[in-house]
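Run: sequence + magnesium ion -> complex structure.
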Amino acid sequence: MTMKVLKFGGTSVGSPERMRNVSKLITDGDKKIVVLSAMSGTTNNLVEIADYYKKGNTDAASNLIGALEKKYAEVIEGLLTTQTYRNKASSIIACECNVIRSYANKPFSIQVEKIILARGEIMSTNLVQLYHEENKIQSTLLDSLEFMYVDADGEPVMPKIEEKLAKVLKQYPDEKLFIAQGFICRNDKDEVDNLKRGGSDYSASLIGAAINADVVEIWTDIDGIHNNDPRIVKNTHPIAEMSFDEAAELAYFGAKILHPSTVLPAKVKNIPVLLKNTMEPNAKGTVISNKATNTGIKAIAAKDGLTAIKIKSGRMLLAYGFLRRVFEIFEKYKTPIDLITTSEVAVSLTIDKTDYLAQIVDELKALGTVEIDKDQTIICIVGNMIAEEQGHAVEVLKALKEISVRMICYGGSDHNISVLIDTKNKEKALIALNNNLF
Ligand code: ADP
Ligand code: ASP
Ligand code: MG
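>> structure
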């Protein structure tokens, strides 16, 4: 029997009322795995608590844990009605908060932070499961830490996920409704880890790929992927259909609605990804699939936090082997390159992982002079822009005529024109593009 995967984000499980609403949406009898995020605000609170521990400010951490526990006490009141179930829920929340408290006087490490961050999804999924149990709604709570695995580089280990998840599901041959935590996983050392902020989307597509689901549905607080960032630009509209490649570019280059890696596992298995609005379940949303879509520009996204690096080397650039030497340095420090442009005498590229910037720059200096620009933003214009269709690049550049553009990348694929600008010009650029392209 085929199965669906449905993921509900933080806002979708952000209150007792929303949790009940999710429960209604998932109890239609279809066989499915439901992936839940932490309640909105919780992961941010957990990041803050970990940060207090890091700074040795245990009092501030303790206050915040207290506030979190109080917030969940209210959620329990609103969600559950019998004392028995309220007690069960309270003891689960207390247990999770005590896990966090237990690190107050231990040395801080990234590992401690990961353990703390994992509590959010564990709490939300337990609450929804208890709501089901109290209301005699049949469902089974899974423990994602039993089957979600990443390797030493934080990349998912698909064969292991497939094998472990299949084993878990085999234990419940008649179950129709499974609930699992998004975001959390284990790493190569079997430690608690996560798929990075916003990672529940990625959990859903990985699980979908692992079980060959017929569809992965990402339920959030908006009616699908919009043509521009609705937080910045007014009058955006949802896009009904996108190809896997278009959606992947958009997610990778900043559209917050999807974790950047979400599309790939679904694309590999050709599983359609549907974006739906929990607040408006009847809205059409966006279907991402391998169906050919209309040509033309469809959407714009922005990705902040980029660092531009320019390597100038009059002598060597066109010599073969030069780019390899440049790339080898980035490879050595496991730092992905986002954009790249070359000229006769220089190569410019961007990175967003700056952990090893100093070392990289040091080594690049052996190849030429190096210039760094921080606080850069990639604006990514996505669509089906086959080269035979003229004018797309011109339209983009015309729209940006008042903005200084640091890099332009076009032709890497048929789906994307990317430009690099100073982050301070982002809003202006997004609005100008919106006015000129749609
Ligand atoms: P969730 O908590 O459900 O994962 P997110 O907050 O991560 O939800 O993503 C949904 C939000 O993404 C929307 O509320 C919207 O503000 C923002 N967003 C940014 N760019 C886009 C876009 N192009 N289309 C739709 N939403 C976008
Ligand atoms: N709770 C995690 C976060 O806030 C994962 C997610 O919501 O997708 O980043
Ligand atoms: Mg999200």
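>> summary
The mean pLDDT is 95. The pocket of aspartic acid (ligand 2) is lined by residues 9-10, 37-38, 43, 120, 182-183, 197-200 (CB under 6 Å).
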